[in-house]
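Translate sequence into structure tokens.
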Amino acid sequence: MNKTKPTLAQQTYEKVCALETMLKAHLDNKKSVPDQRSLMSERPLYLATAGPDVPLSVICLEDAPDYLPCFDEADLLYGIPGLPILMSYCPEQVMDIGEESYLVGPMIFFRIDHIGNTVSLQVADLYQLAEFLEEHSVILMQGGESFVAIRLD
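Result follows.
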């Protein structure tokens, strides 16, 4: 029997399904708490992180500096086209080749609402972020070694 290796799209789909299950379980636990209004201010904000060596993963806002130390201090923002999602990244981890720019370090994704506040990512956002990462991932060569980077438009 010849087994084929799962494609990147299949791997991404499986990862997003696992993230969806985790988020739904967390939300179900929150719904079972009696006084939901008092917890609204304590509810964690869910963001996502990814990077050349890090698959797309859900994280809480307070954990963002563990993945991107300059988060909310010296980071740059990149708007994901057509989505209310911003990508935060370290400007020192951008490589310019000709007129193209490539991100070679970690990134944090977060959603903004209609008035500009940061809100939790939704499950559908994870699918769109996975597509964005797949479409913008490129393999670059430097000094005889190859590595993955994210092309910035």
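Note: Residues 8-152 form one domain.
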